[in-house]
Amino acid sequence: MTVEARIRCSFCGKPDTEVERIVAGPGVYICDQCVSLAVTVIEQSAALAEEGEAKPKLPMWSSLSDDEMLNHIPRVSAHIDATEADLVAWVRELRRRGVTWTKIGESLGITRQSAWERFSGEE
Question: What residues form the annotated binding site for Zn(2+)?
């Protein structure tokens, strides 16, 4: 599967084929629809703050039931898997460019050996 085929919004899960635009960050993607929603939420939060209303509770799960949390964790897991796949693609590109396992390991805060074991694909 190509990287392009895997690109989905990290927030709503829609593939790039169902949205106008996707912006990429390090291991995350956000679509134009979620950006618009975020702008609305930020504007509403600012208006509530001006009126003296309380900010949303954090962490997010403090207001969720057990069932809501159980329904949410598959999405969290999918994001982790997508982020890991993105990291693997970055490391493969670095290796294709001739970057050493030592430099990759240093960048990730792990040893050269740990980087090789995690990303080389060899056992």
Answer: 9, 12, 31, 34
